[in-house]
Write a structure and sequence with these properties.
- By secondary structure, the chain is mainly beta.
- It has one helix and ten strands.
- The N and C termini lie close together (about 10 Å).
């Protein structure tokens, strides 16, 4: 994959990485809430969003979130939240030995997913 192909935004990234479970709970113009469940070996690969922020809310398990610009590592447990602002690259991993279940609130604005790998 060339650098230009890696940085090409897509409107639906569900085909780019595997998860145990994915559900869309709310969808409104410029905003949606999804629930994802990751096994201990699954990740949401490096990406960013051009216009929207991702706010993560952990329901079960432990999340390890890596960010760039600046480099940062954040660990979240059930009830914790963190917002990755628009244009800030991030990678989501499961930091535990059991499944990680979390909500991601995305908005306000037009959704895109810009893969970096």
């Amino acid at each position: 994959m060339t650098a230009a192909e890696r940085l090409k935004p897509v409107k639906d990234a569900s085909h780019l990485y595997e998860v145990e479970r994915r559900a869309r709970h709310v969808q409104r113009p410029g905003f949606h809430i999804s629930e994802l469940q990751l096994s201990p070996t699954q990740t949401v690969p490096w990406h960013f969003h051009t216009n929207i922020a991702d706010t993560f809310y952990v329901l079960e398990g432990e999340m390890r979130l890596f960010l760039q610009n600046p480099k940062q590592e954040v660990r979240l447990k059930p009830g914790d939240t963190y917002t990755a602002v628009a244009k800030r690259p991030h990678l989501v991993t499961n930091a535990g030995k059991t499944s990680l279940t979390f909500l991601v609130l995305q908005g306000m604005g037009e959704y895109d997913y810009v893969p970096m790998v």
